[in-house]
Amino acid sequence: MRALAEAVRSRARHGLVHGELGPDHVLVDADGRPALIDIEGLMYFDAEWEHVFLQLRFGPHYDALRTEGLDEGRLRLYRLAMHLSLVAGPLRLRATSRSRGRCARSPSATPGGRSAS
Fold first, then answer.
1. Which InterPro entries match (predicted)?
2. Which of 4, 47, 65, 90 can pair with 77 through a Cys bridge, CB separation 3.0 to 4.6 Å?
3. Sequence ranges of the domains in the chain
């Protein structure tokens, strides 16, 4: 983790990223102009963050969205961060089974992510 973080150098500029861009977040108006929706996650950040999400979302179809000049170090770090966030949901390590890597569902979580109460 430290090596991934150390490979990322500070940068003077950031871009505006959607955070979860996909076809269901773009509407086309009557004149054919695109409009972004669900923009509550907009942020000034690295384009690499958006591209890691696009790679995860579109898999083999990502090539049509690929952009030249992305920082490979940032891509690796953000890919790890997104993968970790995907498994950080209702799963937790059992206190007695950490060394064996077993996981258990949080007692307050259901498969849909809703509280069991």
1. Kinase-like_dom_sf
2. 4
3. 2-105
